[in-house]
Amino acid sequence: MTSAPCAAHDDAPWMLPTTPGPGRGRHLVPRAWVRRSSPSLELSGTWSFRLHPVAAPEGVDDAGRSIEPTFDTEDATLGAWSTIELPAHWVLTGQGKRGLPWYTNVQFPFPLDPPFVPDENPTADHVRTFVLPDGWGLGEEGGLDVLRLDGVESFASVWVNGTWVGTTQGSRLPSELDVTGLLRAGSNEIAIRVSQWSPGSYAEDQDQWWLPGIFREVTLHHRPAGRIDDVYARPDYDPATGTGRLEVEVSGPAAAFPAEVVLPELGVSTTLTGPGLAVLEAGAVEPWSAEIPRLYELDVRATGETVRLRTGFRRIEVVDGQVRVNGQRLILAGVNRHEVGASRGRVFNEEWSRADLALMKAHNVNAIRTSHYAPHPRLLDLADEIGLWVMDECDLETHGFEAVGWQGNPADEPAWREALLDRARRMVERDKNHPSIIFWSLGNESGTGRNLAAMSQWIHERDHQRLVHYEADFAGQYTDVHSRMYPTLEEVAAVVERDPASPAGTGPVALSGIPASRLSPGQAAHVRTLPYVMCEYLHAMGTGPGGAEGYTKQVEPNPRHLGGFVWEWRDHALIDPRPEASGALRYGGDFGEDVHDGNFVCDGLVTADSVPSAGTRAWAASVAPVVATALADDPGAVELRNRFHSRTTQGLALAYQVLAEDSGQAVVTGQVKAPELAAGESTVLRVEGLGEAIERLRREEPQAVVHVQAAVLDPVVAGIPATSPRQVDPVTGAVLLPQIGQSTEDGLRVMNLRETSLAPLVPATTRLSVSEPGARRVSGAVELGQARLDSLGRLVELGGVEIVGPEVCAWRAPTDNDDGHGPVEYWDVAPTPQNMGGGSATGGAWGTPSSADRWREARLHLLRERSCGIEIDDDAVTVRSRAGAPSRQWRLDVTTRFTAERGGLRMRTTIEPSGPLPSVLPRLGIRLGLPAGLEKATWSGTGPAPSYADMDLAARHGVFQGQIEDLWEMQVRPQEGGTHPGLRSLWLTGQDEAGPLRLMVLTHGAPAFSLSAWHLDNLTAANHVEELNKDEHLWLHLDGLHHGIGTRSCGPDTRPQFAATARTVVLDAWIGVQRG
């Protein structure tokens, strides 16, 4: 791609450049983030602020030369001045009057004309006056004054006391400018002009909000003549001897030396007489890992200052394609983490970030990929301290060039070489001392090319310890791991498992039509020798993700499989800054963007409010580092497996719950100390009291399924508070174990809980129904015991309470995965090893019809029902109807038999589908409109959270209780999110205009159920939570079929075994009403 000639803006160095490249001016070489004893001044706080529509509002003089800006805050010629609190994105301040956020995923929000950007380019001036603190060292001979900008999006030009000092590009990377000689005693002024768009924007197309501003700190540092310029600590740990070695590369002027390099805790030191390498033989040390994040202070004591950092001893190596740390295999249970908060965007808050990482640890996350840029440096300090493996990713993504066949892609254009190398250097030099970082990642979705290879070469030369990652290097030409995004299970198996049909490993490694499928046989054989990582998988958009267990089961048996990083950790929804929005959460398009990608920015395991979902817990269960499983063939025995990398099971507890399904018996509980197992060990133990409890319940309830729930409780990693709904004892009402990631009443985190179900000892006897005679017509209606039906046989009242239905239903409010247009779908062709799990995918093309598209085409959401007759005999009413959709020939034949039983009403509904229905349905069942005043639910079935066929690993059987509003997991875009399979009984309490009310539902066949305060039409149509309106009824759905979730919003479709394939269903339920 070549750009048409345009007028250059390079006549003045302070101007927005029209060429790619590193920043201009008085830049210092990148260095590590460390703590220093020398003076510094953080300039966060109130700055003067002025916004312009263009990058150079001053224009040109009579000779056509650009006019250099002045920043007189008393002069309003170019616009009025106001104030802003930095760090900040200006579009999230000013109540929407300073512009608004803009979201795109792949597409650029400006013409693809690199490196030029539009003239319409929001640009803001930021001005701050300050006084240097006492003892600054102003004017010190040999001293250095440094201005550091940790993050500015996307271009900054900087003046100090009226003198221009430099420009920056690379929004999420630091820049340091030499301002020596420009500071003075008394008042000083700094001015920073920031433009939203720059040539660098072409390298920052990272599926996130475009948020301009100075969003990280601006800091002044005085570095004395006897300073340390940089420190590079390279620790090593020998797992065979348990000893550590530390190489410390120290640079600085001659005046800094001699300098002492010290590990105070270990009493080890050496002295350097000049710049060079210090080697410390540390002796016996405790190694660093994500599970035992042991850190040691390192001091470098120069003549003019002391530099401090924390280091951890660990060794990274690849042995036979397997990544090992400290001699042990590494498995990543990771997430992709954008740096984003709902109120302040990418502005860093340490307390909030610490809580964010703690929430990850509570849900068994052990690794983060810093997608798709280096995070705030303190975040990496926290990862070192809390314990997380880190893939540190460079601030680089050029995804929008894919739409033009990667023409002009910066990853391969020579003109961009130095700009991209500069980004790699700034990331590595800043972050090189963090023991948590195991991988450097070159960036994301930028095609491939010579500049990426050059970045990798430079990183390998600078850092011989860590591995280099980049997903689109499919052939492994310049990186160290084979990486994939959103592979099918069959694609994973093709790479990590041995194929007897291809012993040389030269067969295809990917689904036909995607770039990884184009490898030569030799390249395919090579990548099968490399470690394998899923850098993105299980797209967690909306309700979901489904199918986690399929992926996580493939990791342990395959030695080269590293695991992966779920996309992604957190929804990016932002709080609307406009007062009239009343704090509502927003996604793409909500701010009036003319080009955007909707709610694709809301794809996290936790919401923007930090609430984990049922999908989060299902994934957490699948990756849990310690698993306890009750053995079905040996009641009372539990297999305990320690899947930690390095931590033992010391201090863990095993808890059990034993219950007989639908029996009314109390739950038997117990807790014992876990035996100590080293990492990687497993054992089978007999748990005191467990066998006896199982035997007793099976003896007393021989017709019942007995469920044995074994949980691992952790006192080390904190859990989050338990939330409604909760599992309760049906006899005492006492709360039982909370959900995975939550804390028990004793403060122990539920690391994992697995359920083993034991079949009944004898077949269950059929419950006899005793019908009450008396069905009769009254004034055109039908009375049947406590029930009243209208003339067409539709229920309108039970026990004096209005109840509507049953209405047949084959529609659910589409999830984001239902609406997904990913190329891998399984409606017509099942996944097989032969088709690499592609199903009917062709050529990897996006835009194929989604499941919801097909359901809409069939008009399942427009279902209409007509009566086909009503039959009344002495003790029953049989109602027949047929449902269909406008201009469609498929039909649902519905037969409901009503009988009055036990003071209530039994409904047995049979739904028979026929005709050209979609092969997969969203659901098939009935719904009932109940009184809206019902508020609390207690049910026997599965819970506590919603679950689906491919998202049920964290679900368990039991009795559960909670507020009805808590039974639905609401997404920022409303959708299906409240289904609980396996219902046995349901008790609802509340009140209506007549007083307290209790409604009971008993089922045969254990259907799925959900309770929704909103009508399905409203739930389907709403784009935001605030568009939901509580209906006049509470809607109870009972489903004989309910479709799985999948990950087709960006990954593969719901697997066929979890699909709701159209077939006849029977719903059998008894309903009763009580007053008082």
TrEMBL record:
Q: Which UniProt keywords apply?
A: Glycosidase, Hydrolase
Q: What is its EC number?
A: 3.2.1.23
Q: Does the keyword Hydrolase apply?
A: yes
Which stretches does the entry tag as region Disordered? Answer: 1-22
Residues annotated as domain Beta galactosidase small chain/: 783-1068
- Reaction catalysed by this enzyme: Hydrolysis of terminal non-reducing beta-D-galactose residues in beta-D-galactosides
Recorded GO cellular component terms are:
beta-galactosidase complex
Q: Which GO terms describe its molecular function?
A: beta-galactosidase activity; carbohydrate binding
Q: Which InterPro entries match?
A: B-gal_small/dom_5 (IPR004199), Bact_Beta-galactosidase (IPR050347), Beta-gal/glucu_dom_sf (IPR036156), Gal_mutarotase_sf_dom (IPR011013), Galactose-bd-like_sf (IPR008979), GH (IPR017853), GH-type_carb-bd (IPR014718), Glyco_hydro_2 (IPR006101)
Q: Which PANTHER family match?
A: BETA-GALACTOSIDASE
Family, per entry:
Belongs to the glycosyl hydrolase 2 family.
- The name of this protein is Beta-galactosidase
Q: What is the lineage of its organism?
A: Bacteria, Bacillati, Actinomycetota, Actinomycetes, Actinomycetales
